[in-house]
Design brief:
Keywords: Membrane, Transmembrane, Transmembrane helix. 75% of the residues lie in helices and 0% in strands. It has one domain: Cytochrome c oxidase-like, subunit I domain (Cytochrome C Oxidase, Chain A), CATH 1.20.210.10. It contains twelve helices and no strands. The radius of gyration is 21 Å and the shape is globular. Helix 2 packs antiparallel against helix 3, helix 4 packs antiparallel against helix 5 and helix 9 packs antiparallel against helix 10. The N terminus is likely disordered.
């Protein structure tokens, strides 16, 4: 007798925001970007009771921008993209809520510490536990999916997640051992690993987005990456970040930073088409990559011109973490909720312009007029906060509502 295979029940979740990882993590990252920068403005000007003897406020800021904001965006993107790459269902519903809750509890603990509500390092101990749970659970579901379909080319991304876990662990080890040098290494290791992820993922998706975006207008363009560009970019970047973090040598730093910049400027030239300037979801990605190249040039010039190393770090973080993640979230949030990526919210141009202002004000204006440094920092902070407020207004309704076509996702 022939058996009849009944259709499986379609997936469901208690709320649309838990349908796919990008929804809840992009939403959380955007709200957190507003809160953490607002609080940093108060910490920076000495208006909170943060326990500076436990943790240098600069590392409090750096940790949360990397392991708080940036890693949330990475989680939202990876846990969505890996499902597309492998065909393996990623966590949704209550399982996704559990992973997000680990991230959220850790972030609330760091926010409370920044407000000065901690006694000793109790809140940071709580944060350490849930941060490790967050990264471990995220890495496990990605690792399981990759192994299930034997897609070993994704192992490089898994290696970066493992090293991010190590970097975050070093941050906490330094805090509890009262060794800020170890915490600094953990912060910078996380920062450069995130930049490495951005370079790796960006070289894959930016050309694809450019091709798809221009094809909508009937422009047939084939954007290619070459193997020599990938290899040279990786070698220069790996040598650069090891040099900057562990073996400071201005000659090697200059050569490697210029190497990363030149290779990726050549790559950008191959991606260019004048029509991208008519599409904010394309020119924002392009400018983010270009801003990263400018940032590496700043690294190369810094030992010779004498401006602060922090300016190069902030330039790279704003372009590679701020602008790139903002542009990716703006595009992915539309495409994966079944909305027209060619008709983004009206505020996207203003959002991206504000992030350009952050980049210029925080990284370049202090070089030109260092006597107004505090003013430039405050302008950058205000522009960042305004940018993500606009993102929340424009995109939280999209991220929290069902797809217009009724599909799960």
């Amino acid at each position: 007798m022939q058996s009849i295979k009944l259709p499986t029940q379609p997936p469901s979740s208690p709320h649309p925001i838990l349908n796919l990882s990008f929804r809840v993590f992009f939403s959380g990252a955007a709200v957190f970007a507003v809160l953490i920068m607002t609080l940093w403005a108060f910490v920076f000007t000495g208006h909170t009771d943060i326990a500076a003897q436990t943790l240098n406020p600069l590392y409090w800021h750096g940790h949360e921008m990397i392991y708080g904001y940036a890693l949330a965006v990475v989680a939202g993107f990876l846990l969505t993209a890996v499902q597309t790459w492998t065909g393996v269902k990623m966590p949704y519903g209550y399982k996704l809520l559990a992973i997000f809750s680990y991230w959220l509890i850790a972030r609330l603990s760091w926010l409370a510490f920044g407000l000065g509500l901690d006694i000793g390092a109790g809140l940071l101990l709580l944060a350490a536990i849930f941060d490790m749970l967050f990264v471990a659970s995220m890495a496990w579901v990605v690792f399981r999916a990759v192994l299930q379909v034997k897609q070993y080319k994704q192992m490089g991304i898994l290696a970066k997640l493992a090293l991010l876990t190590l970097g975050n662990g070093l941050c906490y080890w330094g805090i509890f051992a009262n060794d800020m040098t170890v915490t600094k290494i953990g912060v910078y290791l996380g920062f450069y690993l995130i930049i490495g992820l951005v370079l790796t993922i960006g070289r894959r998706v930016v050309p694809f987005f450019i091709e798809r975006g221009l094809a909508y207008d009937g422009i047939d363009i084939k954007v290619r990456n070459s193997k020599w560009q990938d290899v040279l970019s990786l070698v220069f970047f790996l040598t650069f970040f090891i040099t900057d973090l562990f073996y400071p040598n201005k000659y090697l730093l200059t050569i490697t930073a210029l190497g990363v910049a030149i290779v990726n400027l050549i790559r950008l030239a191959g991606w260019y088409h004048p029509k991208i300037w008519q599409k904010p979801l394309l020119w924002s990605l392009y400018l983010a990559f270009f801003g990263m190249c400018l940032s590496f040039i700043l690294y190369a010039l810094q030992p010779w011109l004498g401006f602060s190393h922090s300016l190069a770090v902030h330039a790279l973080s704003i372009a590679g973490v701020g602008m790139m993640t903002l542009a990716m979230m703006a595009r992915v949030s539309l495409g994966h909720t079944g909305r027209n990526i060619h008709q983004p919210p009206k505020m996207v141009n203003v959002m991206f312009a504000l992030m350009v202002l952050v980049f210029v004000s925080r990284a370049f204006l202090p070089i030109i007029a260092v006597e107004h440094y505090l003013l430039w920092v405050m302008i950058a902070q205000g522009a960042w906060i305004s940018c993500f407020v606009l993102f929340c207004i424009s995109y939280l309704p999209i991220l929290s509502k069902p797809r217009p076509d009724g599909l799960f996702g």
